Amino acid sequence: MLLIKLWNYLRGYVIIKISGEYCERLLNQAALNGLYLWDITKPENNVLFAKIGIKDFTRLARFAKKTGCRLVIVGRAGLFFSILKLKKRKILLTGAALFILAVYLLSSLVWGIEVKTDDNKLKSSIKRDLMNWGIKKGTFKHRIDKEYYLDKILIKYKEIAWAELQIKGSQVIVELVKKQMPPELEQNEPCDIIASKDGIIEEILPFKGEAMVKPGDTVSRGDIIISGRLTLKSNDLDEEKKEEQQEVLVHAKGIVRARVWYQKVVKVPLVKKEKFPTGNTKKAYRINVGNRALRFQLGAIPYSLYDKKVTRKIQLLPKIFGDVGLSSITYIELEEKERFIGMKEAIKQAEEQLEQEVNKLESDAKINKRSIDFTLDNDKKHVIGSLTLEVLEDIGLQRQIK
Amino acid sequence: MKEEFKQKISDALDLPKDIVLDLSRIIITGKISIFLENHKGIIEYSKDLVRIKTTSGVVAIKGKGLVIKSIIVDEITVEGKLETIEFED
Fold first, then answer.
1. Residue in A16, A42, A69 to test binding to B, most B beta-carbons within 10 Å
2. Of the partner residues B45, B67, B72, the one whose CB lies closest to the CB of residue A24
3. Is the pLDDT of residue A238 over 60?
4. Strand partners, A304
């Protein structure tokens, strides 16, 4: 009953006055023919008041003629009539529309900027910069290009490792993580130069400080090559003073070139697994709302091995209403096939991989000698390529003296 | 004869009588509301008396300020201050 009443309220109903001698007969007729009447009252003889949906009313009028009753509409109610009434009150409607518009407009403006970091100096600096770049109170939040501002922040502040810009309601929130920068030594800070790698010293040119090794010496990682600790030999013959040799700490500087060896081993299988498309595909669709994705497809993906291809993206709504897009995904079934590639091919591939390793070396390194060996693995399924490089490079590294 | 037979069957098989015998079912809520299922129409209606035809005679509801809350093909709800309910043959 509630549902019927609600339905009638939505469609609109009329309050009618039925007058006539056989009102009850009209009620029975209406009930028999499936018309729904409710809240029937009889305040006096031969007069009935009832409520009926507007659609049913026209049908009831026909029965009324038959039974000799008179129908008069006393009142109208329901949503349908409320809307009709509202249509006449244009000022009220425009007021309501303006109110909604105002709320929408105000909520799409930026009202506050927050930078989440412990560093107060950085916080105020970023806030000031954002203000200069265009994010301030009253900016439209839909116009803010997050990537653009993040890039700007990251470019300007080298000490920031990671940053995120979020817009929550009317707040712009910038989250930061600061980099831990290695302390750079000041020009005059006393330091040693140590070996960063194992190797044999080829050439040593101390500009400042005292060389501890000669060319041809073997050094291992961490050894002091140029010391910043200079001992002054005093000419004083005084015994006591000779004991306490004077030490001067300097900022050691110099070039240390050493021969360093690198070794790299790669394993290439003789039998290669390759993936080929079988020609079977399956389509699915995805709706993106902002960062969330809703995917729908018929059935599960019937392939054990497949490749996914997002074909296209259609913007469903204008940008201001949020990023709503539709993209179709094609799943391509793949098949794995084994292929014997042979020794020659395997060696070629191993060489290519080793070549890439060589390219990873620092640019100022000079390759002295290189040798590549290929052997067959014990199980005869792989080719092992080993590369030995002899490189001449600067291995000097500054270390502070404590 | 036929009615008695039907009643016996419904007794024996424990079937609901209102369905087997085509009787009306009346639900009374306190003193304020009466719900009548399977009626054959209203005979008389005023704010003090409602008479409803059923298969087993006329049900007369007496009270004050009676209102037919709703009426459809075989259901009637009457609300108001109920006083007596009579079954007339």
1. A42
2. B45
3. no
4. none
Smallest Cα–Cα separation from A133: which of A116, A152, A159?
A: A152
Identify the residue among A23, A28, A36, A39 best suited for mutation to test binding to B, counting B beta carbons within 10 A and taking the highest: A28
Q: What is the DSSP string of A293-341?
A: EEEE-SS----SSEEEEEEEEEE-S-GGG--EEEEEEEEEEEEEEEEE-
- Domain total for chain B? 1
Q: Answer whether residue B59 is part of any domain.
A: yes
pLDDT band at A222 (very low <50, low <70, confident <90, very high): confident
Mean pLDDT, chain B, rounded, equals 88
Closest C-alpha among A192, A217, A212 to residue A202? A217
Residue in B43, B47, B69 closest to A24 by CB = B43
Q: Check which CATH number belongs to the domain holding B60 and give it.
A: 2.60.40.2000
Contact A349, A268 (CB under 8 A): yes
List C-alpha distances in Å: B13 to A157, B8, B10. Answer: 89, 9, 5
Q: Which residue has the higher pLDDT, A211 or B37?
A: B37
Identify the domain containing residue A23 by its residue range: 2-84
ipTM: 0.78
Q: How far apart are CA B57 and CA B52, in angstroms?
A: 9
* Of the candidates A156, A359, A362, the residue with the CA atom closest to the CA atom of residue A264: A359
Q: What residues are paired with A262 via a beta bridge?
A: A389
Residues A339-362 as b or e (16 or more Cβ within 10 Å = b): eebeeeebbebbbeebeeeeeeee
